[in-house]
Amino acid sequence: DQQVKQNSPSLSVQERRISILNCDYTNSMFDYFLWYKKYPAEGPTFLISISSIKDKNEDGRFTVFLNKSAKHLSLHIVPSQPGDSAVYFCAAASRGNAGNMLTFGGGTRLMVKP
Amino acid sequence: NAGVMQNPRHLVRRRGQEARLRCSPMKGHSHVYWYRQLPEEGLKFMVYLQKENIIDESGMPKERFSAEFPKEGPSILRIQQVVRGDSAAYFCASSMGENTEAFFGQGTRLTVV
Out of B33, B59, B109, whose CB is closest to A100? Predict the structure, then answer.
């Protein structure tokens, strides 16, 4: 039972264009959402997060949107750069239950072409 | 300020042997989490520990797997009598508190031959 899903295993985008990565979740207890970036043979690196009391959070080129009614979030990267090429994981937590246990999606491999 | 340190980075074990994976959290962090990533999949939560306590082990297989985070020293994930299906990347994360950001180590890639 996958509680967090990333339905696109891969995405290819031209440099300087916008990258949009999507994530859906099923557990209504999730109240905190994160995006991680992962390069091969390295650990996930935290990118950006959003609490369920917000619908948007922005940090430089990265913006996360949360649609609670649809149980959907997305990560926008603009402009995309070749160095953004990596696997992106969406993760969710139920902080009301305490703890930082994260439920991850399966990841989306982003390729930004020069 | 060193990040989360995991060792070894790569570990090869024969079926039936024991694997011990170590994780030193970031300085000042007393919360440790272990995750496993099978090939072509996302990370799956295994266990959450604080110093000398297992807080949540709902993601741990019931047999052969154990974890500890002693008062002194690193957190250890121990897999007894490894099988081929245990081959995966094991990631440790640490955080300062329950609801603060967790930072990941570079992982240990376990290969069972």
Answer: B33
Q: How far apart are CA A107 and CA A113, in angstroms?
A: 19
Task: Tell me whether residue A60 is exposed, middle or buried, using C-beta atoms within 10 angstroms of its C-beta: 0 to 12, 13 to 18, 19 or more.
Answer: exposed
Q: Are A2 and A102 in contact (CB under 8 A)?
A: no
Which chain B residues in 43-102 lie under 8 Å from chain A, judged by CB atoms?
Answer: 43-45, 48, 55-56, 59, 91, 93, 95, 98-102
pLDDT, tens digit (0-9, with 9 covering 90-100), for B17-46:
999 999 999 998 999 999 999 988 889 999
- The whole-angstrom distance between A56's CA and the closest CA on chain B is 18
pLDDT at A97 over 70: no
Taking all residues of chain B, what is their mean pLDDT, rounded to a whole number? 93
Chain A residues with CB under 8 Å of B59 CB are: 101
Instruction: Look up residue A99 and give its two tokens.
Output: 């703890």
Contact B106 A41 (CB under 8 A): yes
Least CB-CB distance to A101: which of B45, B91, B109? B45
Contact A61, A51 (CB under 8 A): no
Question: How much is the mean pLDDT over chain A?
Answer: 93
Distance CA A8, CA B95 (A): 30
pLDDT tens, residue by residue, B55-96:
999 999 999 999 999 999 999 999 999 999 999 999 999 998
